[in-house]
Design goal:
13 strands, three-stranded antiparallel β-sheet
Length: about 210
Amino acid sequence: MILSDRDIKKALAQGRIKITPEPDFETQLGSCSIDLHLGNRFRVFKKSSFPYIDLKGPVDIKEIMEEIVVKKGDAFIMQPGDFALVTTVENLELPHDLLGRIEGRSSLGRLGIIVHGTASVFDAGWNGKPTMELGNLGTMPVALYPGMRICAFTFEELTSKVDVPYVNKKNNKYAGQKSPLASKLHDEVRAIPKKTVKAKPLSKKKRR
């Protein structure tokens, strides 16, 4: 069950959902969602320094990315095909029986700007600044200004409280984040044991 505007306000008033700083309902609250604002710390790939990403390679992904801090009043220009990680201004804390779902704003989508490539769900027990996977699918550069409304969150009831909330999971990667963190998938992939494959000798027919 998705929370309505009435239930979102109720959940915030009860402290069940916590958004800091407190939202302005007049400008941020939709019929069944609440808008959050664009932060000013962007993480982008150093495309000219690394030829490709190797999840099992010697270089951590965090070293393949750099952080750009946009000054107040300035814009972050997204060229067509660009990709960047950025957090919202707000910190979001979810209870153990609600999940959050991030969605892009239609007005930005019509310009080609998407706010998530795949990670739309925030597990019950999430706490931190949500990170967006910004992309420009359009054909023209778009100037994005920190502080603008960038995404919308909806909230869904679970059938019961989870046994292990996100913040308590041993393998959680991004709990409590305050700035956009690079992917930590390399830690997971490197843990996969390598299999040694022995080359089979060629048969006499194949040797010919």
